[in-house]
Amino acid sequence: MSDQKILVVIGATGVQGGSVIKSVLSDPKAAATFKLRGITRDVSSPRAKALSEKGVECVTGDVNDKGSLKHAFRDAHTVFAVTDYWQKMDAKLELQQGKDIADAAKEEGVQHLIFSTLTNVTKLTSGKFPNVYHFDSKAHIEDYIRSLGIPASFFMPGFYMSNFETMMNPGPQGGYVLAMPIPPTTPIPLFDAAHDTGKFVKAMAMKREKVLGKNILAATNYTSVEDVVETFKKVKPETGAAFITVDKDTYKGFLAKAGMPDFAQEELYENMVIMDEFGYFGKQSLEESLALLDEKPTEFADFVAKSPKWKDLK
């Protein structure tokens, strides 16, 4: 009988879950410690089949079906759970999904629930910015998990580097332009979700006793917006880039053109402006979280150099 512990990954074919699976499989010690079980809505999909071929046990599960979660969590030691607000843009639905995950983990005796959470922006800003629903809903799930008293820790992803692939666009006079409603000195906790989620979550799974009850802040470093642009220019010197600060209406106009409903425009505006005044992570240090890692997180220069979106830029 195998001594491996079962590590269940929700969203096994997604960005965060896929990164966790890849990181564990590529680390001999972690791969020997954990047997991976990936939850996906469609085990017959090409991505799920590819995981099965790598030795991952793929099972059907749905965050909207608590019974399927209980079945997927059976005999599991550790569960990595992520919810997706943006799929339906419904904070109440996301909260229910999170509660069902937590309840299923408790009922199945999971010994370590690692939940992907975010800051409670309404609380952080004393109500000044109450509309960042995709942050607050996850924070409310975290509160619920803590209220159950189950063994858990909380992974907090920083600002996705991949966001800049859509936020930086060709300017009218050449080069690329990054336009945001914040000053150029605003610090952003840069995070390569596809490559680095697994580095952090794997460390949390392997170092359970160190992280129980803690929030682990996942980011490479705090980088100002102007330094983001300068790094892009260094990696792509012939393309060039510039940063401009835009007002609220202009920024929301960009989002409207992209098809975002009005409430989501306000949400994403507030999501940006909190970073300057209050900090994405409430201005907390990354030092303790980075000390957990056995591998270096991705630098933004490396992300730019390897981005498929920018591969033809020089």
Structural class: alpha/beta
The description of the largest β-sheet is: 7 strands, parallel
Distance between the termini: 54 Å
Neighbour order of strands in the largest sheet = 3-2-1-4-5-6-11
Secondary-structure element order, N to C: EHHEHEHEHEHHEEHEEEHHEEHEHHHH
Shape: globular
* Individual helix count: 15
- How many beta-strand segments? 13
Radius of gyration: 20 Å
Q: Mean pLDDT, nearest integer? A: 96
Low-confidence stretches: none
Q: What percent of the residues sit in helical stretches (DSSP H or I)?
A: 40-55%
Strand content: 15-25%
Tell me about this structure.
- It contains 15 helices and 13 strands.
- The protein has helices spanning 15-25, 28-33, 46-53, 66-73, 91-107, 121-124, 133-148, 163-167, 193-206, 208-211, 225-235, 248-257, 262-277, 287-290, 300-306; strands at residues 5-10, 34-40, 57-60, 78-81, 112-116, 152-157, 159-160, 168-170, 176-180, 187-191, 215-218, 221-224, 241-245.
- Strand 8 and strand 9 form a beta hairpin.
